[in-house]
Specification:
The chain is of the alpha/beta class and 244 residues long. The protein has an eight-stranded parallel beta barrel with strand order 1-2-3-4-5-6-7-8, surrounded by six helices. The protein is 41% helix and 16% strand. Helix 1 packs parallel to helix 2, helix 7 packs parallel to helix 8 and helix 9 packs parallel to helix 10. The chain has a single domain, classed as TIM Barrel (Alpha-Beta Barrel). 46% of the residues are buried. Helix 1 links the parallel strand 1 and strand 2. It binds 2-phosphoglycolic acid. The site of 2-phosphoglycolic acid has 13 residues, from strand 8.
């Protein structure tokens, strides 16, 4: 189902004191305003704190990664079921930082999305091309390969995912895709998903989204919301995006 959704990705940032302030602001200021839902994906050690701070609010929360395995000898990993025990609704999978720095393949990303679904979480599956790929005109080919792997791994269950288009060259660089560039890729992804029988998946854009540029991105017909990194650490900026 397509919903308006803004998700913060704190990445490896935060601390008990600064989290408490940020979470309290979100819990106090966000009234479940239509037409968007709001969520934050926090580092796993802060899930209990996040659950306590947001539990009674309309703000949802999640993790930034899950293991593709259900349980066992996987030192350092966090399972989707563990995240679910702390009230998580979402699990980001296949963020470009995980793909690039931790060698996660399309196959592993699809398996992680499956593990999240098995635990009752909504996977936010990330796709996106590197700068060199865009310059070679390969954007369509790359994101198609990534989304096809998700469809191949999940079958019908892909309809329960959120898909985030995050061009790697726009992440943390201050260089956002133009609304037209974002829409081109979102329209392609939606067409591809529709061919797989599920055209109404929620599609987020991510990469240097700020309060100042969110409105023009959200005005695009196939952009349903945003996955927000740096700007999600600042309550005013993050709430500004959610209300754009
Ligand atoms: P950014 O990150 O908003 O800081 O560019 C987005 C993301 O990596 O999810």
């Amino acid at each position: 189902m397509r919903i308006g959704l803004v998700v913060g990705n704190w990445k490896m940032n935060g601390g008990l004191a600064s989290n408490a302030k940020l979470l309290a602001r979100l819990a106090d200021d966000w009234r479940g305003e239509v037409p968007r839902r709001l969520a934050v994906c926090v580092p796993a050690p802060y899930l209990a704190q996040t659950q306590a701070a947001l539990g009674d609010s309309p703000v949802a929360w999640g993790v930034q990664d899950v293991s593709e395995h259900a349980a066992g000898a996987y030192t350092g990993e966090v399972s989707a079921a563990m995240a679910a025990e702390f009230g998580c609704r979402y699990a980001i999978v296949g963020h470009s930082e995980r793909r690039r720095l931790h060698g996660e393949s399309d196959l592993i990303v699809a398996a992680k999305a499956g593990a999240a679904l098995d635990a009752g979480l909504v996977p936010i599956a990330c796709v996106g091309e590197a700068l060199a790929e865009r310059e070679r005109g390969e954007t369509g080919r790359v994101v198609t390969r990534q989304v096809d792997a998700l469809v191949a791994g999940l079958g019908d269950r892909v309809r329960e995912c959120v898909v985030a288009y995050e061009p790697v060259w726009a992440i943390g660089t201050g260089r956002t895709a133009t609304p037209a560039e974002a829409e081109d890729v979102h329209a392609l992804l939606r067409k591809r998903l529709a061919e797989a029988g599920t055209g109404d998946v929620t599609l987020l854009y991510g990469g240097s989204v700020k309060a100042a540029n969110a409105g023009s991105l959200f005005a695009m017909p196939d952009v349903d919301g945003a996955l927000v990194g740096g700007a999600s650490l600042d309550a005013d900026e993050f709430l500004g995006i959610a209300r754009a």
